Amino acid sequence: MTEIERIDQLREELHRHNYNYYVLNAPEITDQEFDKLMRELQDLEEKHPEHRDENSPSMRVGSDINKNFTQVLHKYPMLSLANTYSEAEVTEFYDRVKKALNEDFEICCEMKYDGTSISLTYENGKLVRAVTRGDGVQGDVTDNVKTIRSIPLVLHGKGYPEAFEIRGEILMPWMVFEELNKEREAREEPLFANPRNAASGTLKLQNSAIVASRKLDAYLYYLLGDHLPCDGHYENLKEAEKWGFKIPDLTRKCKTLQEVFDFIKYWDVERKNLPVATDGIVLKVNSLRQQRNLGFTAKSPRWAIAYKFQAEQALTRLNKVTYQVGRTGAVTPVANLDPVQLSGTVVKRASLHNADIIEGLDLHIGDMVYVEKGGEIIPKIVGVDKDARIMIGDKVKFITHCPECGSKLVRYEGEAAYYCTNDAACPPQIKGKIEHFISRKAMNIDGLGPETIDQFYQEGLIHDVADLYILKTSDIINLERMGEKSAENIIKGIEQSKEVPFERVLFALGIRFVGETVAKKVAKSFKSMDALAEADLERLISIDEIGEKIAQSILLYFANPNNRGMIERLRVAGVRLEADEEDTSDHTDKLAGKSIVISGVFTHHSRDEYKELIEKHGGKNVGSISSKTSFILAGDNMGPSKLEKAQKLGVAIVSEEEFLQMIE
Ligand code: IVH
């Protein structure tokens, strides 16, 4: 056998072993034997680069070459499902379908997996592309998806259509999630709130070798294409199973509403034993012909609905309430609880949000309280079991003074939170601002973390963010737990942060309500810190999406001489306070001289992105239709009055796809 033939043989064998292990859960060889074959393949592939194959099993180990994701358009838009928490609405859905179809139908009941959605495209039996949905992660993540062992790179048999898409959910199993968070805790890295965030965060990584180490899984639930084998959604997935896909086998076809409710009731309890997170049940009309009959609304199919489970709750005792002061001075009450098991983790603390919530719950120390996990790490208290009160403890009263610096707390008009306004001297505010400043999305200063910031602050080395830039290696090298190498790294990291672009410096300042997106918009409009510092209210609110609240906060920030002084010190240090010249290399004049109105709901890009695209290609985005309008870029559900006006004035209507072709 030649080496080339051996490569082909190994590829085939390894694909099969992968499938046996990850899809069927029935390995035929040991892990060691598998690794040995893989190494043999990798060695041979290295010797024969001319025989490279994008879908070789060796591609699953990922690579540490950083890759930027390109954006791709979906052939079929990735829509969401209508959601409900109510059984009555499930009945309404069933009745609506029955009435519209006026013939027998089946409902396919499946789990609603709580991960991040993915669309896989296969051509001639090979995985050619993996694309995420527009929100969250965006774009082509093929290299990362190839590391997921249960996704076939090459299909089995012959019965598959020449080209098709299969959609599903990428998930991080509970066990992997818990292990990952344990490791992150040990390394003092921020924890993932839930397996969903962990999965989508992992899929976004630019280094596919790390993705490979995170052990993601995929459950596929939707086949799309022009030449599918059957009319039934369920039957198509059964076929796909034969091609090597991992298809959840919990799916059931139901004929009656009662069967649907039985399924829901069973899985509401039983789902806790599944290896991955689920948050509901999806009901789909099974026949594709009937699905086409029912059609879509602008956002979701009329042939499907998601019934969402109520979040899990636990009952436990409230021992005391403590208060945390954040970087903005906002004071958050935290409930300290008797430890209790909730959705897979032990809960000891819960957020109480603000004084009104405490008042609304009529909370007393010693109360038995219901805790619930939302999307965040910290669970919240949603109720009190008043019948369980035997002896009534002290009523929880919100504090009047800052627990950290003793200043009197204030409450601003229209806001729920109490604030400590002593921002120049209240330790958690000072430290919190510095922590925000150095964080990844802000100045991204490596080697610094909350603990080192605390240490530098305790030692009197830093009092605000500008102090970072006067630190020298000799100032910190002798501190406890600091070595020469880490000291140098920190100073190097600080030095490098002087290259961070203006928009991120602006975000890093931590001005209230100025998050990443707002900072970008403001930086684009003002181009320099000086121009921004001199702006008045009117000029600020003229920026798209900047309202009075954000504008006032910016004005307040620059009205404070301490802040202005600090910015001067940043300037002296060499931090960038001006925007770069814009990169215009991909600009064209394809839309030069055109006035374009945007209207409706879009699938491929957001409205803002379309606005940018128009400007990039020399056009002008205008608000209302007139005889001067060149055309209307129209998505779904364009308003009827706009449509009428356009027709009256003879203004052309251009669809999303046509528009994208125009600027291609
Ligand atoms: S079907 C056109 N089935 O829920 C409908 N979606 O809100 C296509 N999801 O984006 C989706 N489990 O990420 C479908 N069994 C399931 C699902 C499921 C989870 C997710 C999916 C989708 C979102 C819809």
Describe this structure as you would to a colleague.
By secondary structure, the protein is α+β, with helices and mostly antiparallel strands. The chain folds into 6 domains: 3-61, Helix Hairpins (Orthogonal Bundle), CATH 1.10.287.610; 83-308, D-amino Acid Aminotransferase, Chain A, domain 1; 313-410, Nucleic acid-binding proteins (OB fold (Dihydrolipoamide Acetyltransferase, E2P), Beta Barrel); 427-499, Orthogonal Bundle (DNA polymerase, domain 1), CATH 1.10.150; 502-573, 5' to 3' exonuclease, C-terminal subdomain (DNA polymerase, domain 1); 595-663, Rossmann fold (3-Layer(aba) Sandwich). Helix content is 36%, strand content 19%. It contains 24 helices and 21 strands. Strands 11, 12, 13, 14, 15, 16 and 17 form a 7-stranded antiparallel β-sheet that branches. Helix 12 (427-438) crosses helix 13 and helix 16 crosses helix 17 (516-526). The longest helix is centred in the N-terminal third of the chain and has 20 residues, at 3-22. The protein is globular. It starts with a helix and ends with a helix. The protein binds 2-(butylsulfanyl)adenosine. 2-(butylsulfanyl)adenosine is lined by residues 79-81, 110, 112-113, 117, 169, 221-222, 282, 301, 304, 306.
Write the layout of secondary structure elements.
Layout: H1 3-22, H2 31-47, E1 83-84, H3 87-101, E2 107-113, E3 116-123, E4 126-132, E5 139-140, H4 142-146, E6 163-171, H5 174-186, H6 195-203, H7 208-213, E7 217-224, H8 233-242, E8 252-254, H9 257-270, E9 278-285, H10 288-294, E10 304-308, E11 313-325, E12 330-342, E13 345-351, H11 355-361, E14 368-372, E15 380-384, E16 409-411, E17 418-420, H12 427-438, H13 450-458, H14 473-476, H15 484-496, H16 502-508, H17 516-526, H18 529-533, H19 537-541, H20 548-559, H21 561-573, E18 595-599, H22 607-616, E19 620-622, E20 631-634, H23 640-649, E21 652-655, H24 656-663
Parallel strand pairs: 1-10, 18-19, 18-20, 20-21
Antiparallel strand pairs: 2-8, 2-9, 3-4, 3-6, 4-5, 6-7, 9-10, 11-12, 11-14, 12-13, 12-17, 14-15, 16-17
Helix pairs in contact: 1-2, 12-13, 16-17
The structure holds 2-(butylsulfanyl)adenosine (IVH).
